[in-house]
Amino acid sequence: MGLLDSLVGNEVKKFVKRKDSDAGEAGRALEELRGSIYNEIRTSEGAKRQQQRFCGPVVAMTFNFIVSVGIILANKLVMGRVGFKFPIFLTLIHYVTSWLLLAIFKTLSILPVAPPSKTTPFSSIFSLGAVMAFASGLANTSLKHNSVGFYQMAKIAVTPTIVSAEFILFRKTISFNKVLALAVVSAGVAIATVTDVEFNVFGALIAIAWIVPSAINKILWSNLQQQANWTALALMWKTTPVTIFFLLAMMPWLDPPGVLLFQWDFNNTTAILISALLGFLLQWSGALALGATSATSHVVLGQFKTCVILLGGYLIFNSDPGFVSICGALAALCGMSVYTSLNLQKLQDNVSMQLPKQSLLTLKPKATDEESVESDVEDTTNPTTAV
Questions:
Q1: Number of CB atoms found within 10 A of residue 128's CB
Q2: How far is it, in rounded angstroms, from Cα 190 to Cα 324?
Q3: pLDDT tens digits for 81-104?
Q4: How far apart are alpha carbons 5 and 84 in whole angstroms?
Q5: pTM for the complete prediction?
Q6: Which of 85, 231, 314, 344 has the most CB within a 10 Å radius?
């Protein structure tokens, strides 16, 4: 019995030891999985990879296009039917709503982690928040004091401004074919909107003052996301307080008096809140598009939106912008198609250049005749490989 107990005891010890070993391996695997999930969610590098994985250029630009059309209708309702004639204060409501939503995300631990402060100086964050306030506030003010046609004509000037600024700041150049495509796009949009060009001196000055901040805003958003590990939401969280500060400073100068006398009933407040929610989505989608593409591509997307709205009104609502405007819109769409194809070609070339040049050397070398014979003999004698 002693021998039997000894054997049984040894088997039990081996079984318990094996179970402990399996439990240890399972625990290590769980810790590794937990660590990988933490790296993907709670680090700036992981959050940036998640953004790139789930929101590529096509998704980001489609998202931005849909939201842009929606906020145009919402702002038209707010400034037209509702009669809210305070563009800077409306922009301030948009950014305060965005900041509150981002604060909720941060409380729920949904907000992505920002990169370490030493990687991005505070001056860059402060500059981006400031130019964002001027770009957004002056855009709404320009839309209030100018016609839609002149507003779109001013947006055309943003394209060469971006190209020039990127060359001055980062020595970034574009090919002649892209320059030609952008020229066709700009000329087409100008022809499509020239019939609605009405402006006054104050509106023209606002539009001119808006061009440079708009271009710098897009360049900084794109550069910080692509060169550092910033995600769109993390960058919005850091820059929105600065933007709110500058919008508060701009209100007394550009908004008319009487904002406190506005009738804040249920319908008017609901329309403004819907516009504010769309403003948050517009800022987010625009940041995603700038992070996934470039500042110039984002401007081209805005011009594409203008042409689609013009042609959609002609085809769906039987509006008559005129034969010249339709031809201009079609020419702009053709230029956008060429510009997009050139960007896709450049992307494919970059992917091809990043492939290992010695990939063929990593392939398994061809076996000699003797090795082939030995391998065949081993395969026929190994029951696991028999078919």
A1: 23
A2: 11
A3: 888 889 899 999 999 999 999 999
A4: 90
A5: 0.72
A6: 231
For the record, the structure tokens of 4 come out as: 């039997």
Q: Is residue 343 over pLDDT 80? A: no
**3-state SS class at 231:** coil
Q: Which two structure tokens, joined as six digits, stand for 53?
A: 């994985």
Cβ–Cβ < 8 Å for 202, 212 = no
Contact 222, 110 (CB under 8 A): no
Distances (CA, A) of 144 to 70, 76, 202, 206, 258: 18, 10, 11, 10, 16
83 sits in the region (left: phi over 0; alpha: psi -120 to 50; else beta) called left
Given a cut of 50, whether residue 366 has pLDDT beyond it is no
Q: Which two tokens stand for residue 61?
A: 């630009």
Length of the chain: 387
Which two three-digit tokens encode residue 318?
């039987």
Separation of alpha carbons 141 and 128, rounded Å = 20
Give tens-digit pLDDT for 145-193: 777 667 777 777 888 888 888 888 778 888 888 888 888 888 887 777 7
The C-alpha atoms of residue 382 and residue 223 are separated, in whole angstroms, by 58
The tokens describing 186, both together, are 């700009």
Using CA atoms, how far apart are residues 98 and 281, in angstroms rounded to an integer? 9
What is the per-residue pLDDT for 102? 95
